[in-house]
């Protein structure tokens, strides 16, 4: 997984990679699933408008250090020192303490049954709940995979997704209804952990 993230960071750094954020669904050995949420975190001394009209600085290299020191190479060591010095040289505010204080969050994933299959998806703040509701909505239609009804099936999926995003009804996920305005990050919106 780590190797794949590095490769993606090289060819499309805006998709994730070192220092980027994202969501990961990890299957354990029993088989249980964990939703890992690793979002970007601003430096402790960041100001609300400090990134407006600025270009973020990208750093490459040091992969050999990762192979010998593991994750500590990034958060505490020569790479961390070089990165914070480079960022600060360009008016950045990231410190070694910012890197050392970074944490990930684990959450319970969303889970539904769709046509006798168990589907597991990342929960809020990802779009997994919206996709899950879309799938439950189109489950009642037959011929969804029939190529002769492709236009109708596409229309139904589009409408189901619009419904799920616009008025997300988490009834199928055993929670209460919520409107789109309430979708967001549980770390910043009180009570959103229910979703």
Share in helix: 25-40%
Q: What general form does the structure show?
A: elongated
Radius of gyration, taken over Cα atoms and rounded to an integer in Å: 21 Å
Mean pLDDT: 77
Strand ordering within the main sheet: 1-2-3
Note the run of SSEs as H and E: HEEHHHHEEEHH
Q: What is the percentage of strand-forming residues? A: 5-15%
Unreliable residue stretches: 168-172
Counting helices, strands and paired strands, the structural category is alpha+beta
Give the biggest beta sheet.
Answer: 3 strands, antiparallel
User: How far is it from the N-terminal to the C-terminal residue, by CA?
Assistant: 27 Å
How many helical elements? 7
Describe this structure as you would to a colleague.
- The structure is a single chain.
- By secondary structure, the chain is α+β, with helices and mostly antiparallel strands.
- It has seven helices and five strands; from the N terminus they run αββααααβββαα.
- The chain has helices spanning 2-11, 63-69, 72-75, 78-89, 96-100, 128-138, 150-166, and strands at residues 22-27, 33-38, 105-107, 110-114, 117-121.
- The strands form two sheets. Strands 1-2-3 form a three-stranded antiparallel β-sheet, with no helix packed on it. Strands 4-5 form a two-stranded antiparallel ribbon.
- Helix 6 crosses helix 7.
- The relative contact order is 0.10.
């Amino acid at each position: 997984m780590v190797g794949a993230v590095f490769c993606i960071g090289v060819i499309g750094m805006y998709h994730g990679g070192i220092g980027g954020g994202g969501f990961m669904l990890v299957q354990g050995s029993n088989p249980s699933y964990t939703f890992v949420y690793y979002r970007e975190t601003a430096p402790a001394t960041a100001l609300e408008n400090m990134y407006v009209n600025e270009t973020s600085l990208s750093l490459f290299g040091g992969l050999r250090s990762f192979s010998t020191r593991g994750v500590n190479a990034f958060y505490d060591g020569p790479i961390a020192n070089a990165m914070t010095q480079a960022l600060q040289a360009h008016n950045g505010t990231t410190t070694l303490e910012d890197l050392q204080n970074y944490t990930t969050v684990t959450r319970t994933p969303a889970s539904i049954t769709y046509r006798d299959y168990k589907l597991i998806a990342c929960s809020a703040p990802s779009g997994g709940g919206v996709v899950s509701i879309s799938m439950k909505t189109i489950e009642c239609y037959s011929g969804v995979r029939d190529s002769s009804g492709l236009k109708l099936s596409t229309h139904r999926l589009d409408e189901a997704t619009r419904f799920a995003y616009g008025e997300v009804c988490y009834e199928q996920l055993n929670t209460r209804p919520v409107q789109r305005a309430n979708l967001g990050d549980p770390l910043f919106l009180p009570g959103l952990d229910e979703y």
